[in-house]
Amino acid sequence: MNIFLDTNAIIYSFKQKLDLKYEIERLLPGKKKIFLLTCVDEELRLKAKNDYAIIKKILEKNGVIIIKVNKIGSVDDTLIHEASKVPDSVLITNDKELKQKALKKRIKVITVRQGKYLDFA
Fold first, then answer.
1. Which candidate, 50, 51, 41, places its Cα nearest to that of 13?
2. DSSP 106
3. CA 28 to CA 18: how far, in whole Å?
4. Burial 15-46 (b: 16+ CB within 10 A, else e)
5. For residues 18-34, average pLDDT
6. Stretch (H or E) spanning 89
7. pLDDT over threshold 90, residue 62
8. 108 has a pLDDT exceeding 90
9. What's the confidence (pLDDT) of residue 115?
10. For residues 32 and 80, what is the distance between their CA atoms, to the nearest angstrom?
11. Residues sharing a CB contact under 8 Å with residue 43, sequence separation 6 or more, in sequence order
12. How far is CA 78 from CA 4, 26, 28, 38, 115, in A?
């Protein structure tokens, strides 16, 4: 299983004190890789501001793999492009527009529900 993280899901999970690693394991037990695209990392740095350093440490501690990619259009477009290239991909996002684009491309989507847990869209 290949999991791609979106900026808003990371920030929202951090602010709600949601344990992303635990929730991902609960939903998707077994072998998996969690990816953070460089363009998502850049967006995270801009949006998370003062929380960026701690969020980044948490992601690294949880084994998130940073993938260097060339941005194709928007960050959302790049996420869709990269996730669609990798078999058995899942995208974690709370962005409604991104969720719809991913589902149209047959990419599985996980969202944060009620600020407390992850679930499939």
1. 51
2. T
3. 16
4. eeebebeebbeebbeeeeebbbbebbbebbee
5. 95
6. strand 89-92
7. yes
8. yes
9. 83
10. 19
11. 7, 75
12. 11, 27, 24, 10, 26
Residue carrying the six token digits 């609960």: 26
Domains, the chain, ordered by start: 2-120 (3.40.50.1010)
How confident is the model at residue 85, as a pLDDT? Answer: 94
Report whether 81 contacts 40 (CB < 8 A): no
Residue 14 pLDDT > 90: yes
Backbone angles phi, psi at 43, to 5 degrees: -65, -40
Beta bridge pairs of residue 120: 110
Residue 12 token pair: 């929202």
Task: Name the CA dihedral angle for 76, 54, 14, 46, rounded to a multiple of 10 degrees.
Answer: -40
Radius of gyration of the chain (CA): 13
